[in-house]
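queue> pop job 88
queue> type: inverse folding (structure -> sequence)
queue> payload:
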Protein backbone atom coordinates (compact mmCIF):
# COMPACT_ATOMS: atom_id res chain seq x y z
CA UNK A 1 0.00 0.00 0.00
CA UNK A 2 1.32 3.51 -0.83
CA UNK A 3 1.87 5.94 2.02
CA UNK A 4 -0.41 8.95 1.83
CA UNK A 5 1.14 12.41 1.55
CA UNK A 6 0.19 13.09 5.15
CA UNK A 7 1.93 9.88 6.29
CA UNK A 8 5.04 10.80 4.34
CA UNK A 9 5.08 14.25 5.90
CA UNK A 10 4.60 12.82 9.41
CA UNK A 11 7.37 10.33 8.94
CA UNK A 12 9.79 13.04 7.75
CA UNK A 13 8.97 15.12 10.81
CA UNK A 14 9.50 12.19 13.15
CA UNK A 15 12.80 11.24 11.48
CA UNK A 16 14.08 14.83 11.54
CA UNK A 17 14.10 15.04 7.73
CA UNK A 18 13.64 18.63 6.62
CA UNK A 19 10.52 19.69 4.75
CA UNK A 20 11.48 21.57 1.56
CA UNK A 21 9.43 24.08 -0.48
CA UNK A 22 8.28 21.64 -3.17
CA UNK A 23 7.33 18.89 -0.69
CA UNK A 24 3.70 18.31 0.16
CA UNK A 25 2.81 19.85 3.53
CA UNK A 26 -0.46 20.26 5.44
CA UNK A 27 -2.12 23.62 4.83
CA UNK A 28 -2.03 24.40 8.57
CA UNK A 29 1.74 23.80 8.69
CA UNK A 30 2.21 26.17 5.76
CA UNK A 31 0.05 28.82 7.45
CA UNK A 32 1.86 28.45 10.76
CA UNK A 33 5.19 29.01 9.02
CA UNK A 34 3.98 31.97 6.97
CA UNK A 35 2.65 33.58 10.16
CA UNK A 36 5.80 33.07 12.22
CA UNK A 37 8.37 33.67 9.48
CA UNK A 38 6.73 36.81 8.11
CA UNK A 39 6.33 38.24 11.63
CA UNK A 40 9.96 37.41 12.23
CA UNK A 41 10.97 39.21 9.00
CA UNK A 42 8.88 42.26 9.95
CA UNK A 43 10.52 42.30 13.40
CA UNK A 44 13.98 42.45 11.88
CA UNK A 45 12.97 45.33 9.61
CA UNK A 46 11.02 47.34 12.20
CA UNK A 47 13.82 46.49 14.66
CA UNK A 48 16.18 48.69 12.66
CA UNK A 49 14.26 51.81 13.71
CA UNK A 50 14.99 52.13 17.45
CA UNK A 51 18.73 51.70 16.90
CA UNK A 52 18.83 53.64 13.64
CA UNK A 53 17.74 56.57 15.79
CA UNK A 54 21.24 56.64 17.39
CA UNK A 55 23.47 56.30 14.31
CA UNK A 56 23.94 60.06 14.02
CA UNK A 57 24.55 60.40 17.76
CA UNK A 58 26.91 57.49 18.48
CA UNK A 59 29.68 58.75 20.79
CA UNK A 60 32.68 57.82 18.59
CA UNK A 61 33.55 56.80 15.04
CA UNK A 62 34.11 53.20 16.18
CA UNK A 63 30.71 53.07 17.86
CA UNK A 64 29.06 54.61 14.81
CA UNK A 65 30.67 52.16 12.37
CA UNK A 66 29.70 49.20 14.55
CA UNK A 67 26.13 50.40 14.96
CA UNK A 68 25.73 50.97 11.22
CA UNK A 69 27.01 47.44 10.58
CA UNK A 70 24.59 46.00 13.14
CA UNK A 71 21.57 47.82 11.74
CA UNK A 72 22.56 46.71 8.24
CA UNK A 73 22.75 43.12 9.47
CA UNK A 74 19.14 43.39 10.69
CA UNK A 75 18.10 44.52 7.20
CA UNK A 76 19.84 41.47 5.78
CA UNK A 77 18.02 39.19 8.24
CA UNK A 78 14.70 40.66 7.20
CA UNK A 79 15.51 40.05 3.54
CA UNK A 80 16.55 36.42 3.99
CA UNK A 81 13.41 35.82 5.99
CA UNK A 82 11.13 37.47 3.42
CA UNK A 83 12.77 35.28 0.76
CA UNK A 84 12.37 32.16 2.89
CA UNK A 85 8.69 33.07 3.45
CA UNK A 86 8.17 33.46 -0.31
CA UNK A 87 9.08 29.77 -0.75
CA UNK A 88 5.75 29.03 0.98
CA UNK A 89 3.75 30.64 -1.80
CA UNK A 90 3.13 34.18 -0.56
CA UNK A 91 4.80 37.17 -2.21
CA UNK A 92 6.94 39.70 -0.41
CA UNK A 93 4.48 42.41 -1.48
CA UNK A 94 1.65 40.57 0.23
CA UNK A 95 3.51 40.10 3.50
CA UNK A 96 4.64 43.73 3.56
CA UNK A 97 1.09 44.84 2.79
CA UNK A 98 -0.11 42.82 5.83
CA UNK A 99 2.40 44.68 8.01
CA UNK A 100 1.42 48.10 6.71
CA UNK A 101 -2.29 47.35 7.08
CA UNK A 102 -1.68 46.44 10.75
CA UNK A 103 -2.76 42.82 10.12
CA UNK A 104 0.63 41.20 10.77
CA UNK A 105 2.43 41.46 14.07
CA UNK A 106 6.07 42.23 14.73
CA UNK A 107 7.93 41.84 18.00
CA UNK A 108 6.47 43.93 20.83
CA UNK A 109 9.97 45.00 21.90
CA UNK A 110 10.39 47.42 19.01
CA UNK A 111 7.54 49.60 20.24
CA UNK A 112 9.68 51.03 23.04
CA UNK A 113 11.76 54.20 22.63
CA UNK A 114 15.58 54.48 22.72
CA UNK A 115 16.09 57.43 25.07
CA UNK A 116 19.83 57.37 25.75
CA UNK A 117 23.02 55.88 24.27
CA UNK A 118 22.90 53.19 26.98
CA UNK A 119 19.71 51.89 25.33
CA UNK A 120 21.85 50.78 22.39
CA UNK A 121 23.92 48.70 24.79
CA UNK A 122 20.81 47.33 26.50
CA UNK A 123 19.24 46.37 23.16
CA UNK A 124 22.38 44.49 22.12
CA UNK A 125 22.72 42.72 25.44
CA UNK A 126 19.08 41.99 26.24
CA UNK A 127 17.12 42.15 22.97
CA UNK A 128 19.71 40.39 20.81
CA UNK A 129 20.42 38.11 23.77
CA UNK A 130 16.73 37.10 23.94
CA UNK A 131 16.64 36.78 20.15
CA UNK A 132 19.60 34.35 20.21
CA UNK A 133 18.05 32.25 22.97
CA UNK A 134 14.88 31.96 20.89
CA UNK A 135 16.54 31.57 17.50
CA UNK A 136 19.35 29.07 18.05
CA UNK A 137 16.76 26.26 18.39
CA UNK A 138 15.11 27.55 15.20
CA UNK A 139 18.29 26.49 13.32
CA UNK A 140 16.78 23.01 13.80
CA UNK A 141 13.28 23.99 12.63
CA UNK A 142 11.67 21.34 10.42
CA UNK A 143 11.27 23.70 7.45
CA UNK A 144 14.55 23.79 5.49
CA UNK A 145 14.66 27.39 4.24
CA UNK A 146 13.81 28.78 7.70
CA UNK A 147 16.36 26.61 9.51
CA UNK A 148 19.13 27.49 7.02
CA UNK A 149 18.38 31.23 7.19
CA UNK A 150 18.64 31.08 10.98
CA UNK A 151 22.22 29.81 10.96
CA UNK A 152 23.74 32.97 9.57
CA UNK A 153 21.29 35.15 11.49
CA UNK A 154 22.33 33.59 14.79
CA UNK A 155 26.03 34.08 14.07
CA UNK A 156 25.40 37.77 13.45
CA UNK A 157 23.14 38.13 16.50
CA UNK A 158 25.98 36.79 18.66
CA UNK A 159 28.21 39.61 17.50
CA UNK A 160 25.38 42.07 18.21
CA UNK A 161 24.91 40.74 21.71
CA UNK A 162 28.60 41.15 22.49
CA UNK A 163 28.81 44.67 21.11
CA UNK A 164 25.83 45.62 23.30
CA UNK A 165 27.34 44.05 26.38
CA UNK A 166 30.62 45.83 25.72
CA UNK A 167 28.83 49.20 25.47
CA UNK A 168 27.24 48.58 28.87
CA UNK A 169 30.52 47.31 30.36
CA UNK A 170 32.25 50.53 29.27
CA UNK A 171 29.46 52.65 30.77
CA UNK A 172 29.43 50.57 33.97
CA UNK A 173 33.14 51.36 34.46
CA UNK A 174 32.66 55.05 33.69
CA UNK A 175 31.47 58.08 35.66
CA UNK A 176 28.59 58.09 38.13
CA UNK A 177 26.35 59.61 35.44
CA UNK A 178 27.32 56.84 32.99
CA UNK A 179 26.62 54.12 35.56
CA UNK A 180 23.20 55.65 36.24
CA UNK A 181 22.44 55.81 32.54
CA UNK A 182 23.41 52.13 32.22
CA UNK A 183 21.18 51.07 35.13
CA UNK A 184 18.28 53.16 33.83
CA UNK A 185 18.46 51.50 30.40
CA UNK A 186 18.54 48.03 31.99
CA UNK A 187 15.54 48.96 34.15
CA UNK A 188 13.52 49.99 31.10
CA UNK A 189 14.50 47.10 28.77
CA UNK A 190 14.46 44.15 31.17
CA UNK A 191 10.73 43.45 31.35
CA UNK A 192 9.97 44.11 27.67
CA UNK A 193 12.83 41.68 26.82
CA UNK A 194 11.15 38.96 28.87
CA UNK A 195 7.93 39.63 26.95
CA UNK A 196 9.71 38.89 23.67
CA UNK A 197 9.36 35.16 24.39
CA UNK A 198 5.58 35.44 24.12
CA UNK A 199 2.76 34.60 26.54
CA UNK A 200 3.09 31.97 29.26
CA UNK A 201 2.75 28.42 27.95
CA UNK A 202 -0.83 28.03 29.18
CA UNK A 203 -1.82 31.16 27.21
CA UNK A 204 0.13 30.40 24.03
CA UNK A 205 -2.31 29.12 21.37
CA UNK A 206 0.35 28.19 18.78
CA UNK A 207 3.09 26.54 20.84
CA UNK A 208 1.81 22.99 21.11
CA UNK A 209 1.16 22.56 17.40
CA UNK A 210 4.37 24.28 16.47
CA UNK A 211 6.36 21.98 18.77
CA UNK A 212 4.64 18.87 17.41
CA UNK A 213 5.71 19.97 13.95
CA UNK A 214 9.24 20.71 15.27
CA UNK A 215 9.15 24.34 14.21
CA UNK A 216 9.60 25.51 17.80
CA UNK A 217 11.75 23.17 19.88
CA UNK A 218 11.17 24.75 23.29
CA UNK A 219 8.16 26.45 24.82
CA UNK A 220 8.00 30.19 25.50
CA UNK A 221 8.45 29.69 29.26
CA UNK A 222 11.37 27.28 28.86
CA UNK A 223 13.29 29.79 26.74
CA UNK A 224 12.39 32.72 29.00
CA UNK A 225 13.75 30.79 32.00
CA UNK A 226 17.04 30.01 30.22
CA UNK A 227 17.35 33.70 29.36
CA UNK A 228 16.78 34.85 32.94
CA UNK A 229 19.35 32.34 34.21
CA UNK A 230 22.13 33.57 31.91
CA UNK A 231 21.34 37.26 32.40
CA UNK A 232 21.62 37.11 36.19
CA UNK A 233 25.28 36.11 35.96
CA UNK A 234 26.02 38.59 33.19
CA UNK A 235 24.44 41.44 35.24
CA UNK A 236 26.90 40.60 38.04
CA UNK A 237 29.82 41.20 35.65
CA UNK A 238 28.33 44.62 34.92
CA UNK A 239 27.74 45.30 38.64
CA UNK A 240 24.19 46.27 37.69
CA UNK A 241 20.85 45.20 39.14
CA UNK A 242 18.01 43.55 37.30
CA UNK A 243 14.81 45.40 38.26
CA UNK A 244 12.95 42.50 39.89
CA UNK A 245 12.67 42.17 43.67
CA UNK A 246 11.41 38.59 43.29
CA UNK A 247 14.48 37.40 41.41
CA UNK A 248 15.95 34.64 43.58
CA UNK A 249 17.97 31.46 43.12
CA UNK A 250 15.82 28.39 43.68
CA UNK A 251 18.03 25.43 44.67
CA UNK A 252 15.16 22.96 44.15
CA UNK A 253 14.52 23.88 40.53
CA UNK A 254 18.13 24.84 39.76
CA UNK A 255 16.86 28.08 38.20
CA UNK A 256 16.19 31.67 39.19
CA UNK A 257 12.61 32.42 40.19
CA UNK A 258 11.41 35.75 38.86
CA UNK A 259 8.47 38.13 39.26
CA UNK A 260 5.21 38.28 37.34
CA UNK A 261 5.34 39.88 33.90
CA UNK A 262 2.87 42.69 33.28
CA UNK A 263 0.78 40.87 30.67
CA UNK A 264 -1.69 43.77 30.41
CA UNK A 265 1.15 45.90 29.10
CA UNK A 266 2.17 43.15 26.65
CA UNK A 267 -1.33 42.79 25.18
CA UNK A 268 -1.78 46.57 24.99
CA UNK A 269 1.44 46.79 22.94
CA UNK A 270 0.18 43.96 20.69
CA UNK A 271 -3.08 45.87 20.16
CA UNK A 272 -1.10 48.85 18.89
CA UNK A 273 -1.09 50.92 22.08
CA UNK A 274 2.61 50.76 23.00
CA UNK A 275 4.68 53.95 23.29
CA UNK A 276 5.97 53.83 19.68
CA UNK A 277 3.59 51.58 17.67
CA UNK A 278 2.18 54.43 15.61
CA UNK A 279 5.58 56.01 14.94
CA UNK A 280 7.13 52.68 13.88
CA UNK A 281 4.40 51.80 11.41
CA UNK A 282 4.36 55.30 9.93
CA UNK A 283 8.15 55.19 9.48
CA UNK A 284 7.91 51.85 7.65
CA UNK A 285 5.10 53.06 5.37
CA UNK A 286 7.01 56.25 4.54
CA UNK A 287 10.21 54.31 3.75
CA UNK A 288 8.23 51.94 1.53
CA UNK A 289 6.65 54.85 -0.39
CA UNK A 290 9.98 56.62 -0.78
CA UNK A 291 11.60 53.45 -2.10
CA UNK A 292 8.89 52.90 -4.72
CA UNK A 293 10.93 54.46 -7.55
CA UNK A 294 13.86 52.15 -6.78
CA UNK A 295 11.65 49.05 -7.00
CA UNK A 296 10.05 50.31 -10.20
CA UNK A 297 13.43 51.12 -11.78
CA UNK A 298 14.83 47.71 -10.78
CA UNK A 299 11.75 45.93 -12.19
CA UNK A 300 11.98 47.94 -15.45
CA UNK A 301 15.67 47.10 -15.77
CA UNK A 302 14.96 43.40 -15.21
CA UNK A 303 12.19 43.50 -17.86
CA UNK A 304 14.49 45.20 -20.37
CA UNK A 305 17.27 42.71 -19.70
CA UNK A 306 14.90 39.77 -20.21
CA UNK A 307 13.57 41.36 -23.40
CA UNK A 308 17.12 41.81 -24.80
CA UNK A 309 17.95 38.21 -23.91
CA UNK A 310 14.86 37.09 -25.78
CA UNK A 311 16.11 38.92 -28.91
CA UNK A 312 19.54 37.27 -28.83
N1 LIG B 1 5.54 40.40 20.15
O1 LIG B 1 1.00 31.34 20.54
P1 LIG B 1 2.14 32.26 20.74
C1 LIG B 1 14.98 40.25 16.89
C2 LIG B 1 1.98 36.84 19.43
S1 LIG B 1 13.79 39.38 16.09
C3 LIG B 1 4.49 40.41 19.32
O2 LIG B 1 3.09 31.94 21.83
P2 LIG B 1 4.16 31.68 18.74
C4 LIG B 1 16.28 40.57 16.17
C5 LIG B 1 2.11 35.68 18.48
O3 LIG B 1 2.59 36.10 17.22
C6 LIG B 1 12.47 39.27 17.29
N2 LIG B 1 3.63 39.38 19.21
O4 LIG B 1 2.90 32.46 19.34
C7 LIG B 1 16.63 41.96 16.39
C8 LIG B 1 0.69 35.16 18.46
O5 LIG B 1 -0.10 35.99 17.64
P3 LIG B 1 -0.78 35.46 16.23
C9 LIG B 1 11.40 38.49 16.74
C10 LIG B 1 3.89 38.29 19.96
O6 LIG B 1 4.35 32.15 17.36
C11 LIG B 1 17.29 42.34 17.54
C12 LIG B 1 0.21 35.42 19.87
O7 LIG B 1 1.06 36.44 20.40
N3 LIG B 1 11.70 37.10 16.85
O8 LIG B 1 14.75 40.57 17.97
C13 LIG B 1 4.99 38.20 20.82
O9 LIG B 1 4.06 30.22 18.98
C14 LIG B 1 17.65 43.66 17.73
C15 LIG B 1 0.26 34.19 20.74
O10 LIG B 1 1.61 33.74 20.96
C16 LIG B 1 10.96 36.17 16.23
O11 LIG B 1 10.00 36.48 15.55
C17 LIG B 1 5.84 39.32 20.91
N4 LIG B 1 6.89 39.34 21.71
O12 LIG B 1 5.39 32.19 19.65
C18 LIG B 1 16.34 42.92 15.42
C19 LIG B 1 11.40 34.74 16.40
N5 LIG B 1 4.96 37.00 21.42
O13 LIG B 1 0.37 35.37 15.25
C20 LIG B 1 16.71 44.25 15.61
C21 LIG B 1 10.50 33.76 15.74
C22 LIG B 1 3.88 36.35 20.96
O14 LIG B 1 -1.35 34.09 16.53
C23 LIG B 1 17.37 44.62 16.78
N6 LIG B 1 9.21 33.71 16.38
N7 LIG B 1 3.23 37.14 20.09
O15 LIG B 1 -1.75 36.52 15.87
C24 LIG B 1 8.94 32.90 17.44
O16 LIG B 1 9.79 32.19 17.97
C25 LIG B 1 7.53 32.88 17.93
O17 LIG B 1 6.70 33.40 16.93
C26 LIG B 1 7.28 33.63 19.27
C27 LIG B 1 5.80 33.54 19.63
C28 LIG B 1 8.08 32.99 20.39
C29 LIG B 1 7.66 35.11 19.16
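queue> result:
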Amino acid sequence: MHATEQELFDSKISQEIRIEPKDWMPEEYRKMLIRQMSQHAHSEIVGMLPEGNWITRAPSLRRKATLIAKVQDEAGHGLYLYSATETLGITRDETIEQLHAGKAKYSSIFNYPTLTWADIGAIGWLVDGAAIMNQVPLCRASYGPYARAMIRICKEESFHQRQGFEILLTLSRGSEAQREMCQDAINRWWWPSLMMFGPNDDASPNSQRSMQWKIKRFSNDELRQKFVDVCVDQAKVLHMDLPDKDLKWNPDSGHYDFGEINWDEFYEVLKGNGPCNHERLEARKKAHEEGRWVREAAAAYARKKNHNHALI
